[in-house]
UniProtKB/TrEMBL annotation:
Signal peptide bounds: 1-24
InterPro entries, per database record: DUF1091 (IPR010512)
Protein's name according to its UniProt entry: Uncharacterized protein
The gene coding this protein: LOC108085325
Pfam family, one: DUF1091
Keywords for the protein's UniProt record, in alphabetical order: Signal
Length: 179
C-alpha cells in the first residue's frame, strides 16, 4: 500500500514539473534608423540589462515636423532560419484610424498591446509630440509571447516602418529569442 502511494506521488510530481516548464523570451538587440533626419531622429534607442533576469527596451524618436496628421505603420515578424525570413505577419495599418478603433485590426491590436502601457503613442492623430517607448519590460513581452499567443522557439525580429505622409521615415527592428 505504501509503495503505491510513493509511485502516485512520484507520478504527480513528474506531471507537475512538466506543466511548470515554460518558454522564456529575451531581447537580444534593437536597431533604430531614421530614413529622413529632417523629419525625425532618435535621441536614444537601447536595451538595458539591469540584472540577469530584468531587461527593458527604451527609445525616443524626436519628431521635427509636427503635427503629424497622416501616419501608417508597417509591422512584419521574421524568424531566423538561414537568415531572417518572413513569419506569419506583415501588416500595414493606418495608425490614425486604428487608434480610433483598436478592434479594427486584431493583429495590429496584439502588437500594439505590447507597448501601449509604456508609450505615449496611445491616442489618435494629430501627434504633436515626440514618440517614446519607456522601459518596455521583458516580463510584459514574455507574457504576451508565451501565454496570450504562444510562438514556437527560435530567434525572431519585429521590423516596423513608420510612414508619415506616404514617405517611409523611420525603421525600428527589435530582435529576441524564445527558448
Amino acid at each position: 500500500m505504501c509503495v503505491k502511494y510513493k509511485y502516485l506521488i512520484f507520478l504527480f510530481s513528474l506531471i507537475y514539473s512538466i506543466l511548470e516548464i515554460s518558454s522564456k523570451f529575451e531581447f537580444t538587440n534593437v536597431e533604430c534608423k531614421s530614413l529622413d533626419k529632417n523629419f525625425a531622429d532618435f535621441e536614444y534607442c537601447y536595451i538595458k540589462s539591469v540584472n540577469r533576469s530584468y531587461k527593458y527596451l527604451s527609445l525616443k524618436a524626436n519628431v521635427f515636423k509636427k503635427p503629424i496628421t497622416k501616419l501608417k505603420v508597417n509591422g512584419a515578424l521574421f524568424k531566423r532560419l538561414n537568415g531572417y525570413r518572413p513569419f506569419m505577419y506583415n501588416v500595414t495599418v493606418d495608425a490614425c484610424r486604428f487608434m480610433d478603433n483598436k478592434n479594427s485590426n486584431p493583429v495590429a491590436g496584439y502588437f500594439f498591446d505590447f507597448i501601449k502601457l509604456n508609450s505615449n503613442i496611445n491616442h489618435s492623430c494629430p501627434y504633436t509630440h515626440d514618440f517614446i517607448v519607456d522601459k518596455l519590460s521583458i516580463d510584459e513581452v514574455n507574457h504576451r509571447i508565451t501565454n496570450v499567443l504562444p510562438f514556437p522557439e527560435g530567434a525572431y525580429m519585429v521590423e516596423t516602418h513608420w510612414i508619415a505622409y506616404d514617405i517611409d521615415r523611420v525603421v525600428v527592428k527589435v530582435y529576441g529569442t524564445l527558448s
